[in-house]
Specification:
42% helix; binds 1,3-dihydroxyacetonephosphate; binds iron/sulfur cluster; Rossmann fold; globular; 309 residues
């Protein structure tokens, strides 16, 4: 009797045939993370894409992350399981509005969060992620004025951490993190009085003020796993629970529901499924395709960021 192939078997076989690497963000479904060659935050995944030497990158994350991988791999095929996997921060900053902002502030350096379209990246001087935003801003001479975009909460956090006054911040927000209410975090702290709080910097300032640790998705995981405490309240997307419970199975992790979906899941990230991953490896679509000239302009700010260690 012929062996019955599971969906996971099919994906692994296609991955081999296609000489593909499977990169997954921490916000993906656990079953997708399980099959990935690398799971990480947006900076780690961009670095993995930069080092890749195969033929196909299957990017299980959102579209802007796959675009970044394509910019770093113009000759390779980059696919995403679902083309609708967008991001509210990308939508918050259309490139024509950025151009208008730059015209009003021609002497400013543009620091863009990686959660932007490739067109916005091409108009930027340097990129940052939640992991290195403070480092990126500190790498710019203190008297050089900055336009920081598009996340207002990350921008305010970086401004506060660097003490920098000459930084103008765009008004965009993440629909998942910006809708975590401080009131619900306060309730969670009363329910779990010994729990420490780890938060992503896309959360509002009043949530961040209640946090014991602020960092990127991977930084939150590292901090919780290595900290001697046994119980944590996690103010980010609940996909991180997969790695947290694998690396610290005896610790307790609590998530707070936001006001957007009364959950803590990113609706864009969760569009990717195992079925769609199989199909995209089979048909090599949805595929990221970008004009050469646009990729060239976007590559400079990406590489400037990746050069910072
Ligand atoms: P990280 O850079 O922490 O992975 O965050 C990406 C993101 O989209 C957060 O919402
Ligand atoms: Fe974008 Fe927020 Fe989803 Fe991250 S969690 S991909 S910032 S919408």
């Amino acid at each position: 009797m012929p062996a019955i192939l599971t969906l996971a078997d099919e994906i692994l076989a296609l991955k081999r045939d296609r000489k593909a690497i499977l990169l997954a963000h921490h916000y993906q479904e656990a079953e997708v993370q399980e099959l990935a060659d690398a799971v990480g935050d947006s900076l780690e995944l961009a670095r993995k894409a930069q080092q890749f030497e195969g033929e196909v990158i299957a990017f299980c994350g959102v579209w802007f992350m796959a675009e970044t991988a394509k910019v770093l791999n113009p000759q390779r095929v980059v696919v995403v399981p679902d083309a609708e996997a967008g991001c509210s921060l990308v939508d918050a900053c259309p490139v024509d509005q950025l151009r208008a902002w730059k015209r009003v502030h021609p002497d400013h350096v543009v620091v863009s969060y990686i959660n932007t379209s490739v067109e916005v990246k091409a108009e930027s001087d340097i990129l940052c992620t939640s992991r290195n935003a403070v480092q990126v801003v500190n790498s710019i001479p203190p008297d050089q004025p900055i336009l920081f975009l598009p996340d207002i909460n990350l921008g305010n956090y970086v401004k506060q951490q660097t003490g920098r006054q000459n930084m103008s911040i765009w008004q965009g927000a993440c629909i998942v993190h910006a809708t975590f209410p401080a009131r619900r975090l306060t309730q969670a702290k009363m329910t779990y009085p010994t729990a420490l709080v780890a938060a992503h910097p896309e959360c509002p300032g009043d949530v961040l003020r209640l946090a014991d640790f602020i960092g990127s998705t991977s930084a939150i995981i590292d901090w919780c796993v290595t900290h001697p405490a046994q119980e944590f309240i996690i103010m980010t997307e609940s996909g991180v629970s997969h790695t947290l419970s694998r690396l610290a199975p005896r610790k307790k992790f609590h998530f707070v529901a936001n006001e957007q979906c009364n959950c803590s899941e990113c609706p864009y990230m969760r569009k990717n499924t195992l079925e769609k991953l199989r199909d995209c490896l089979q048909h090599l679509t949805p595929r990221v395709e970008l004009p050469e000239e646009l990729m060239e302009r976007a590559r400079r700010p990406v590489e400037r960021m990746l050069a910072l260690r």
